[in-house]
Protein: DNA polymerase LigD, polymerase domain protein
Organism: Thermobispora bispora
Amino acid sequence: MTANVRVRVDGRDLALSNLDKVLYPDTGFTKAEVIDYYARIAPVMLPHLRDRPLTVTRYPDGAGGEGFYEKNAPAHTPDWVRTVTLPAKGSTKQRDRIDFALVNDLPTLVYYANLAALEIHVPMWRVGADGTPLPPDTLVFDLDPGAPATIVDCCRVALLLRDALAGDGLTGCVKTSGKKGIQVYVPWERGHGTAEYARRLARTLEAEHPFVTSVMAKRARPGKVFIDWSQNNPAKTTIAPYSLRAGRLPTVSTPVRWAEVEACDSPDALTFTASDVLERVAEHGDLFQPGRA
C-alpha cells in the first residue's frame, strides 16, 4: 500500500492513507477513487448533509468485507470537525449520549472518505446553531421491492405517491437507494407528525393497490412494494443523496427526474455508478430539489 499522503483541503491538513487499496474488488475501484468521488460530488452533496447528525458505514476491508455502523465520532476526529452531543435513542451499545459529527464542509467529507466510510446516512432533521435538534424538515418514503418485484414496481408506487402528495399540496423529489429501491423525499414545514402522516398515506395506498404493503414483516412482502414510512422516526436515518453504496459496483444513491421514473422499464434502468453520477451532475446540476426533477 502507498504511504500516507498529506494534503491541504480548504485550509485543513489531512493525512490520506492506503490510497491504492481496492475497496470494490469486482471493479478495482480504489480508496483514492472513493475520495476523489466524494471530493468532486461535494458541491451538490454537502447542502443535503449540512447540520444533520452523521451515521456512516465503514468498510476498512472494502465493500466485499465486513462493514460496521458508526455514529460516535472517532476519538481521533480532528478538532475542526463540528460535533454535537445528543441523547443516544435506541443505542445498541447502552450509551446515554453520542457525539455525532456534522459533515458541513469538504475537509470533513474527505476525512470520512479516508476512513473508508463508503455509505453516509443522515436523519430527516437538522440541529440548530446551539446543537439542539430541530423539528423534521423532510418527509421520506423508502420503497423496497419484495422479489419478484423490482425497482420497476417501486417506480409505479413512487408515481402513486407523487399524485397523492400533490393532492395534499406537497411536492416531492426522488432518488434511487443505490441498491434495489426508490426513495421519495418531501420538504416538510408542518412541524412534527411526519411518521403519522407517512403511515396514513402508506396505508391508504395499501388499501387501494394490491401490489403495495405498509407491513414490515418479510412474509407480507413477496411480489409487493413495501412503503417504509417508519424511516420518519427521529432515531432513524436513510442513505444520503449522492452517497456511495457498498456492493459489487460503486453504485450511488442517485437523484433522478420524475420522467426517468415514468420511463423505468427494467431492473437495471436506474443503476448509476460514481462516474455516471459525476457526468449527470455536470450535465444537470443537483436534481434533488422539488421542481428540478
